Amino acid sequence: MAVDAAVSPGPRADLEPAAALRLSAWLRDYKTLPGVPDELFDVMRRPRTDWLNFLAGFAEYSPAESRSRFDLATRHIRDTGVSYRVYGEETERSWPLNPLPLILGQREWAQIAAGVEQRATLIEAILQDIYGEAKLVASGALPAAALTGSLDFVRAMRGVKPPGGRHMPLYAVDLGRGPDGRWWVLGDRTQAASGAGYALENRLVLSRAYPALYNAMNVERLAPFFDAMREGLAASADRSQPRICLLSPGPFSETYFEQAHLARYLGFLLVEGADLIARDGRVYVRTIGGLKRADVILRRVDADFLDPLELNGASRLGTPGILEAVRAGGVAMVNMPGTGVMESKALLGFLPRLCRLVLGEGLKLPNVATWWCGQPNACERVERDLDELVIAPAFNTFDGDHASSRPRLIASLSPEARATVVAQLRDRPGDFVGQEVVRLSTMPVLRDDRLQAAPFVLRVYAAWTPDGFRIMPGGFCRTSERSDVRAISMGDGARTADVWVIDNQPVTRTTTLMASKDDVRVRRILGHLPSRAADNLFWLGRYIERAEATLRLARSLCTSLMASESAIHSSGETLALLQQLLIDWGALDETARGGGSLAAARDTLRDQAAYGSVIYLVRAARRTAASMRERLSADFWTLLVDLETELAAAGRAPASEAEALQQTEHALQILAALSGLSQENMNRVAGWRFLDMGRRVERGINACRMARTFAHDGATTDDLDLLLDLVDGQITYRARYLVGLALVPVRDMVVLDCFNTRALAFQVQTLKDHLRALPALLDDGMLEEQERILLPLATEVETSEAAALTVATILRFEQMLMRLSGAIADRYFLQGAKAVPTIKLASMG
């Protein structure tokens, strides 16, 4: 319905005329949905004060300026790779954000916060009972089948006292405004609620887009909540300086970016199931220094997948034996396995009575009316009013078919589909619930400089602290692009919005770094590097270095193909050697042999099927980097994504050798910037060392391979000249030697010169320094395998004479480097059958 212009406010005196006209047009043209509550207008169809203040301030920006501000801020989303994944899709989607936030006043927020705190307290009490004395089941207040029918009810947790005394330190609830104007609960998130990290990103983007408006509105900050959440998690451990891990399903999780962002923001260790090992009642993280104790695990893996020994035997996401460690009290699991049972819709209908029974008061936030069909009377009610209800699964089961796992409005189904649902309901009534049809309330979104009403769902978070539950002031809001949506998920074309809770007085600017404690021990080593992270960093370094080497070969190829005075390698054996090396490298197809062509240069850069092409290597680097986003800066990620985008752009295929050369040089500049970031912006801790070791191993192998190819015994001047180009040695060689190119000094510069940053000798010396700084597994004074390989190689490289250097010797150096790479993997990455380090558990910290 259109809002009556009579109730719309006139232009405010403090607004510029253009802004006043814009505000009046927004309010005049805004249409709400019939019979549906809206956030902009109250039940009397008057604009809410906080919304009016925000829109008045927002109207001060011209349409062009507001778009420019928002577009500039949302570049952060693209540059840092803020993304999500829809179930069943392999590719990630960019994060969709509305330019307008959801505005909530202080009075209304106080009611929401009180209701969320009460509900979290109630659910915790129920969990304490059903995994403890089970009085609620014994008294008949809660049917046993409503619990045991759920896969999320973990019998192995019966009688287990949770560390810290709480089963559910973290809780979230999805809310919508009901037809009576009150907030209603749409669903509980008690297992591993997602979205808190995305709420941080949404706040970052909007506060950057409209900083003056954000500060003037007195928006409550999110940082104090996360600081309290972190302290609450630490308090559940039995050590003063606990190691807190965030357990992720891995890079293919639908919300992996959010998990990585949350881990980085809170300073937690992001781990996967394979990174952990359970032994003797404790859980340890596989690190490069051996096994290190995990004190608290914030899990984002569903309980059924946590332990393949006791739960789902097909799971590859969990850790064998982890439930035994939880039972023994050796690790605090947040939330405890089994808390997900409270997400079952079968329990919603019992919560109003349980609240009065357990807490002695009514629910402050009512549920959607729900009837569990496992009870005969409720089932009769559902069958009688079937066409007026939504039928939904009673438990959080998922058989691979998203459609059958979602609520279905019976009245909208075809006769065949309706008959199928009725047959399923009568066959297994306990598997279903009937619910009243919920019409989600709406909020304004901006489309083409017009306000439009969009249905939304608000997710609010609560975290347990020693002082009780702390409620995040705001939350995670999702809006629908359709006006008839009854449930919203990110796979259905939904967008997100920041949530601004407006305080009545100026707020204090805080961050999670401001909480100062006198008893915090100063550290200069940032924790222990997990083996998987070391593996990824090592291979990220190798992929980037290999891409750079391929680009250098491509640059020489482009130069050779150009009809210019500098094209001295445009024909003959040198060009053939260059092309053969690219073929052997996997960057060029065998059919490219014989005569240069633009296609050869283009394929080297952009052939997505060639495992050695630049685009293939850059994508491999990006995939590897995506597995450890919490360890890479936004600038690093931005440059890597920009390089991939430029190489993959269909319209950027070079039309000439000159264009191919230009693209190659620009890609080299981006890689040089990446190298600069890693050298200047990364702390010199273990992570940086593994990234640099990967580069040094790859660069040393490449130096040997190029030397064998172009500095063979019968090398020509053109061959040696090309080799110096590839290793950036032209200037240095001419400064050292007044004579022309000669085989021995060129070999010396490429292989044995410890002052040349691209020579083998420099890489070997750097690798020695890195290995010397890394921790040893055993303090017995014996050399480890990687040292037994590297030290003889270093000695021979340091003592060799260039005149005695042969192609066979260079090949042996190359093979020793490849053996070294394997030994580093065996020692530090601790995967597969080699996952058990030789270290006494008693000495683990």
From TrEMBL:
Under the heading Pfam families, the entry gives: Alpha-E, CP_ATPgrasp_2
Checking InterPro entries in the record gives: ATP-dep_Glu-Cys_Ligase-2, CP_ATPgrasp_2, DUF403
PANTHER family assigned: BLR2978 PROTEIN (PTHR34595:SF2), BLR5612 PROTEIN (PTHR34595)
| Superkingdom of the organism of origin | Bacteria
Lineage summary: Bacteria, Pseudomonadati, Pseudomonadota, Alphaproteobacteria, Sphingomonadales
Supply the name of the protein: Uncharacterized protein
**Domain DUF403, residue spans:** 529-829
Q: Which residues form the Circularly permuted ATP-grasp type domain?
A: 101-479
